[in-house]
Input
Amino acid sequence: MYYYNVNGAALASLTPLEGLGPEVEPSNSWRLFAAVPGDPVLGRGSFKVNHPGQLLAGHGLEALDASRLPDLDSTGPWGEALMPPPDYRPIPLMVDENVEQAIADGRVTAVNTSRPGWEELLRWTPGSGKKRVNIVAIGDVGSTLLTGLKLLGGDVISSIGICDLSSQITARWEFEMGQINLPWNYNMFPEVEVISPEELFDCDMFVFVASKGIPPVGSQVQDVRMAQFEANAGIVKHYAKMAREKGFRGLWCAVSDPVDPLAKTAYLESNKDENGNWDGRGLRPEQVQGFGLGVMNARAAYFAKRDERLASFLTEGRSFGPHGTGLFIANSIDHYDEELSQELTRLTVTANLKMREIGFKPYVAPALSSGALSLLLTLRGEWHCGSVFLDGVYMGVKNRFTPAGVETELLPRIPDPLFGHIREAAEHLKGII
Output
């Protein structure tokens, strides 16, 4: 390992880095940064390292599976599950005991040194205290999400700003939310206030719930979410540019459909200059997250509770992929069953259509399970279902935010058929944007 002091921050690297001055002694500071190679556009910006192999393969889907990561304890970076290229020659890439211990302690943040402005990350420190949350669009989903945050977020939310094209709507919801209180404990819940569009990014968490072009109940549209993409992408672009202009450094949360492509739209558009050229000066990929997997996971649990054959999901299951087509539900990681997983996936993906058959728009469960509840878990630094930047797309996985950055769950081994479905989901998302 090679160590450098970059403006007071400790940076380690598997290979020598040019232009960073002389090497220094290994650091045992509370936080260690690790330089990792990666694509400047489609690579991750930064992430918490929870396996040495992620220092070489932290940008792809392999980052989810310890058995598929390179082995840096041997004389080469290729583990048992990865095939080296034909011209590969063994290179002694190994982490030392200092880095191994820092990874075990949860103190290592990987930084993609190919991205413009990566040095800024070395000055980043996690904030403390309650957070300001701003929401744009207070329709059916937005108002339900707002209610959830108001009632459940007093421990992590200082206040909530609401913005909508209709001043009548925001006036209504400010009035309604202001009258929700416990007797004699009037500061239990966060205050809600109406804000202007110019104030939207004066916050720690921006929640995008705006939407247009939702197919009406009774329409013949099968993929309702993708039918909204073109219209909603234009709205996302507008707010992504606003975030760029404001120098926003909080979390940009996509809740509107289709969640995962819209998250990537926000990331890409915020990093383009006035001529549409990429410059990397907008949102970092880890500053954007999609919130759509929470309700899919909850829907899978709904069906698992009602069918003993599917009950293994409740204790051993996982959900992967987007909010809609491409989603895959695993009945179990340790006792994976392809047939049961396919059945549970089908039930979960079509659940919204069943609600439409009943005669209602399926928005309450998404607004709470994917929206309010998942956002609160995020603010608390707890495990939740959400889409993080991985393999060049926003992929829905179990993740959490930590002092060392966003952490994706690392499973000991993902069964080959399941990993194939995860890869198919990524390829599906790459085909959209």
Remarks:
- The chain has three domains: 2-123, 131-290, 293-430.
- The first strand starts at residue 2 and ends at 6.
- The chain has a mean pLDDT of 92.
- Residues 131-290 form a domain with the Rossmann fold fold (CATH 3.40.50.720).
